[in-house]
């Protein structure tokens, strides 16, 4: 399925190509979301239940679970999750909770033959089956074969491991048709990439503030001059909905500046935001990286910024990208979203109209409009 890509060359005006832009051209100004969607605790809880617990979320990379016995834990708000590489070679995901009295089974990551509960020492194999429970043999009718961890849907999508807490969800390819092929066009060897480096930050804002900020570049020239010169070409940058699915497609030619962060020749820039909170990016020259956001509270979210390489090592070029990104764009966004969250709590805030430019291009909040539609469809 081809992407509905919209590129605005410098100094030129071209006819509309994206149907969503035609709709906004024929409508009155579209007003942004009310502050309650970012500040109200009841709405936030509904979002967690209806959005985060019912959609695909980037958990980690398959290279982090390379060997049988490897495990990795994570949290999605109040749900503890564990991913395992079984002795049989399968990758699994479970709720990280003992079926006896509810204690968490494991912390962090590592390699184990068994998952042993710290409370009463019930032990499970990496397929989630109960293997031993002290003194349970004295309990009439106790059948360990009927006790196992609750499994979570997991898929390996080009090396990226996604989980979905909805047992009845569609597959990744059904949810995001065409995206696998688009990613392979930009980076044919993406499945050979390995986890190389990750840093995180608690952003001090509602998760949706962070996701909105990521999905528009209307602020880039003013707030991210290094990114606008070092990676992308502002004249060709665009973010548009991909077909009629819940994906926002970021596209750009490589930077034409003499201040690029590294040799950006080769493939174009492409980024795929997969609703609700994951994005896989392909910088020019084959630098693969990702974002994922995990909600902590109504006014806080943790962002995971991850970089990948062919051998799992950070070479000189990748280190330069990591450092430049963290010291400029990443830090600049942290400052922005904290201030936005504070402003959304202001008694004087009234949402204004979004800048929906029918000509598309970088100075356009069409992707924000789409995010608002997707959020309201999920919870209203």
Topology of this structure?
Layout: H1 19-25, H2 36-39, H3 41-52, E1 57-61, E2 70-76, E3 79-85, E4 91-95, E5 109-111, E6 115-116, E7 123-124, E8 130-132, E9 153-157, E10 160-164, H4 172-175, H5 179-186, E11 194-202, H6 207-214, H7 220-223, H8 225-230, E12 238-241, E13 247-252, E14 269-274, E15 278-283, E16 287-297, E17 300-309, H9 316-344, H10 366-379
Antiparallel strand pairs: 1-10, 2-3, 2-5, 3-4, 6-7, 7-8, 9-10, 11-17, 12-13, 13-14, 14-15, 15-16, 16-17
Radius of gyration: 22 Å
The H-and-E topology, N to C, reads as HHHEEEEEEEEEEHHEHHHEEEEEEHH
Question: What topology, given as strand order, has the largest sheet?
Answer: 11-17-16-15-14-13-12
Mean pLDDT reading: 92
Largest sheet data: 7 strands, antiparallel
SS class = alpha+beta
Give the CATH H-level superfamily of the largest domain.
Naphthalene 1,2-dioxygenase Alpha Subunit, Chain A, domain 1
Helical proportion, percent range: 25-40%
Task: Indicate the CATH class of the largest domain.
Answer: Alpha Beta
Give the count of structural domains. 2
Distance between the termini: 30 Å
CATH topology term of the largest domain: Naphthalene 1,2-dioxygenase Alpha Subunit, Chain A, domain 1
Oligomer: single chain
Number of helices: 10
The CATH architecture of the largest domain comes to: Alpha-Beta Complex
Proportion of strand residues? 25-35%
Number-wise, the strands total 17
The rough form would be described as globular
């Amino acid at each position: 399925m081809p992407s509905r890509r919209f590129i605005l060359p410098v100094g030129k005006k071209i006819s509309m190509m994206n149907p969503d832009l035609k709709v906004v051209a024929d409508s009155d100004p579209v007003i942004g979301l009310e502050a309650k969607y970012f500040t109200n605790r009841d709405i936030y809880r509904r979002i967690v239940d209806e959005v985060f617990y019912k959609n695909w979320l980037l958990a980690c990379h398959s290279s982090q679970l390379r060997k049988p016995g490897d495990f990795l834990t994570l949290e999605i708000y109040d749900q503890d999750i564990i991913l395992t590489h079984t002795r049989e070679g399968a990758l699994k995901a479970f709720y990280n909770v003992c079926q006896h009295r509810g204690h968490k089974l494991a912390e962090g990551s590592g390699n184990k033959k068994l998952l042993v509960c710290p409370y009463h020492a019930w032990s499970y194999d990496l397929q989630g089956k109960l293997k031993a429970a002290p003194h349970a043999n004295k309990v009439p009718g106790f059948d360990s074969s009927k006790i196992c961890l609750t499994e979570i849907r997991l898929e390996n999508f080009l090396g990226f491991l996604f989980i979905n807490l909805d047992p009845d969800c569609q597959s990744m390819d059904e949810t995001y048709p065409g995206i696998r092929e688009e990613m392979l066009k930009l980076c044919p060897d993406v499945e050979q990439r390995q986890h190389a480096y990750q840093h995180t930050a608690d952003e001090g804002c509602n998760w949706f503030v962070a996701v909105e900020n990521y999905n528009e570049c209307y602020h880039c020239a003013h707030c991210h001059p290094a990114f606008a010169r070092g990676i992308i070409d502002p004249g060709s940058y665009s973010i548009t909905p991909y077909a009629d699915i819940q994906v926002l497609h970021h596209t750009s030619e490589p930077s034409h500046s003499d201040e690029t962060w590294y040799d950006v020749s080769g493939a174009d820039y492409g980024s795929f935001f997969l609703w609700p909170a994951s994005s896989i990016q392909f910088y020019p020259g084959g630098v693969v990286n990702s974002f994922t956001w995990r909600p902590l509270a109504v006014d806080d979210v943790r962002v995971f910024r991850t970089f990948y390489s062919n051998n799992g090592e950070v070479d000189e070029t990748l280190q330069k990208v990591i450092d430049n990104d963290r010291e400029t764009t990443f830090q600049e966004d942290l400052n922005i979203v904290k201030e936005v969250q504070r402003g959304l709590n202001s008694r004087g805030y009234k949402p204004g109209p979004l800048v929906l430019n029918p000509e598309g291009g970088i100075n356009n909040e069409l992707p924000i409009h789409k995010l608002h539609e997707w959020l309201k469809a999920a919870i209203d």
